[in-house]
Request: fold
Amino acid sequence: MPDIQRIPPAPESPLSVPARIRMRDGVLLAGDVYLPGAPDAADTAPGDTILIRLPYDKSGVYCFIPQVAEYLTGHGYRVVAQDVRGKFRSEGDALLFVNEVDDGYDTIEWITCQPWSNGRVAMWGDSYYGYTQWAAAASGHPALKAIAPRVTGTGLGEPVHRDPSRRTRAVEWGVTYMYPLTQFFDNDMLQWEPDWSRRDFAAQAEEFMSQVGARGLSYDQWYPNPVLLRRFPNGDPFAGRSVPSLHTIGWWDNCAPLSWADVERISQRPNWDAHHYLRIESIDHESYQLHEADGDRVADRSDAQIRDLLPRTLDPALAFFEVFVRGNGAAAELPRVTWSLAGTGEMRESPVWPPEGARRVSRYATGDGCLAAAPAPTESVLRWTHDPDDLVPSSVPDAFSFLLFAPDEAELGDRADVLRFESDEAVADVDLAGPVSARLRIASDGPVMDCFVRVLDVAPDRTALRIARGQVQLLEANDADPAVIEIDLGQVGYRLRAGHRLRVHVSSSDYPEFLPQTGTGADPWTWGATRPNTQSLVVGGADGFQLHFTVLEGELP
Reply:
């Protein structure tokens, strides 16, 4: 049986005034109201408010909202931090994602009716409390003047489902079904880990629910027969009134593909695109940085470290709100894109992304493990074995904190089930800025094939840092006709230093970050009968494995 730790809400901050906010259906959501000034001499005059709606305990240590609120009130804002429906001190069902539009609207409406509110509201937050901003914006409330979502996406947490018209789909994260069994099971957080060596995850989920004596509403909604409830009016988060948005993405955020999908959708909505501002940082999901002192690269940040973190996470939003909430300054003076050139510590500005002048450059895999500037004239086939009993291990124990570990992935390329391709040394620095993608012709003797592609920077000391990645699941993989697939490897802003090389790894697993294939077509969450599969990749010729980079400066090796 799993070892379950139940984590209840932390004591409410003495800097705040507790509030219970009634939703349209009568459910009361718990909020903390922070006003500028000392608690015994608070400024109750009407002013601008920043709303933070989260499921991770508005009073807890994980998101350090009391310190965030103290920083924001120090800049003259009123702050409302709220537990979302069904979480911690809030009433209602713990049902992921689907209540946040209406609850966001009702909370903003409540704020505008308070004597300390001047009717102008902004929102800020990461991950799920970035998602609640997109949801509140979709509600169309006119008092919401600006949002600053970070490391999030409107498709956050959605399970992968098959489109019968397509032969490919995304590979399922290991965390997808765990999230409604831990963070979003009931009011408290229930912290537990499955036995990752067993692989019968569905059975372990049932054991967990039997042990706690209750079922998980969100889990049962998703598995085994998914019911996808509508998150947004008309199913589209960007169909209605637009809201000025400072949209922060991390180069190493595992949720970045969701963020970039929203960037693409916004680009097709002129009313949203007109005041969509992009900020791209060298961070992961938990805001660890590529360029960070070793003493700050710790799992449990001290109060002093948290307070040192606040300016870099909050000041960009405050500058944005100064224009769009307080009306000070002109929108035209704000850079449309602010981005980190990882490997340099520089933040750059651009009117568009990718930056003007960036060009596409292709490299081609060869049969002898090289990356060449031109494809070999004839094709050859490389093969490897996907063994469900010997999976390629994930390089970090927590994918959300990749840069906490900043792992050296070089040794993964020594495995027999990982194909490795490497370039020559760069003769001078090369700046990559824009999308990276791969085109592959693959096949398997099993019914389903997962294909993982990772791009790494290999330093002269032979350590290798992952800088781009993507993965796709191929259905009917044992069809007589091998499939030609495209894999989006994400966006990159990175300097490849002189003397460094590019390396590419191709494999069929990355466990436990992603659920592995059984080799028989059995559902990976349920598990079942397994067998090894022989996978194949074509190199050379018209359909040989090729990668497409976006180069801003320099010559790719």
Remarks:
- The chain has ten helices and 24 strands.
- The two ends are 52 Å apart (CA to CA).
- The CA atoms of residues 370 and 422 lie 5 Å apart.
